[in-house]
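Thread: quick sanity check before group meeting

JM: Hey all, I'm pulling together slides for Thursday and realized we never actually wrote out the predicted structure for the chain we discussed last week. Dropping the sequence here so it's in one place. If anyone has concerns about the input, flag it before I start.
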Amino acid sequence: MRTVPIKFSLWSASKVPHMPAYSLSDFDYALPPELIAQYPLPERSASRLLDGRTGAAVDRKFTDLPALLQPGDLLVFNNTKVLNARLRAVKSTGGVVEVLVERLLSPTLALTQLRSSHAPKPGTRLVIAGKHHAEIVGRDERFFQVQLLEAASGDFESLMREDGELPLPPYMQRAAGEGDTTRYQTIYAQHEGAVAAPTAGLHFDEATLAACRERGIDMAHVTLHVGAGTFLPVKTETIAQHKMHRERYVLAQVTVDAINACKARGGRVVAVGTTSVRTLEGCVRECGELRAHESETDIFITPGYEFKVVDMMLTNFHLPKSTLLMLVSAFSGYEPMRAIYAHAIAQRYRFFSYGDAMLLQKFTP
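JM (edit): ok, ran it. Output follows.
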């Protein structure tokens, strides 16, 4: 175990930690490209764990996690399952189009991101996977609505199941392989609907879950279907002008009861991943309290936000200038997060979806 005092900074800013008036450039940092994990480690729990709960960055192993939690704590997992949401299509002109399904608006209508040499316009016809006829029927800024046209084309769920590809994040710069079919899903994935994995959960294997249970740590689940919007860059220097993407979530009564029981006994709610944080905090923002609910959230958490439910967070390392980096900076404090990222780079941690993890505690001014 290596302990390094937090003394140094990674990205520059003139702000003090309690001030919410940050700009986009305050969340930029330089990451050596070789630190972006392109493939998972042979074992899920073989990753490193940066313990950032206190005023020092401590280098640990992920298998240390159960010992870092207390009996009576509650782990909250996101049990969404990643769809084969990447589809190949061609336009009537012969141009190739990559279709990434963001979410389904109906069985035959999908909100998508499209990638092609020239941005398609509404009215453009597509043939998906060489046999499914579709039309672009609308556009909402970065997203396109794609409608299946013929009954023979079925619906998008069956189309993705039969002809879709697992949508690895763009920074992996490779197509999904056979091993990604299992490794880019959590072992507790249950409800299909995500186009990106809740990556903090990828580190858990059965042995780690068993060790947590043996220590008296409870577990609960939420469902938030991660959208492709999670990878979209923030383009406005003034953060308040950014329009956050929406993601569907389900919060069950059994999870609400587990959280209330945890709080009542003095335990800590430990969110596994930013998606679990967004579900819990988004529900409180919408409903005024934590309660069983099914909705969509576009909650945008930046420094200055007061967390209502989550006490600790397990998460991976996030992209520069991303809304998720802003979220973890809000959670643990802007200055401590700068130092944590600087330490992670100096110690050659692996970054992003298949990378290492960090354990954070809620910042108290």
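AS: nice. Residues 1-19 have pLDDT under 50 and may be disordered. The two ends are 28 Å apart (CA to CA).
JM: adding both to the slides.
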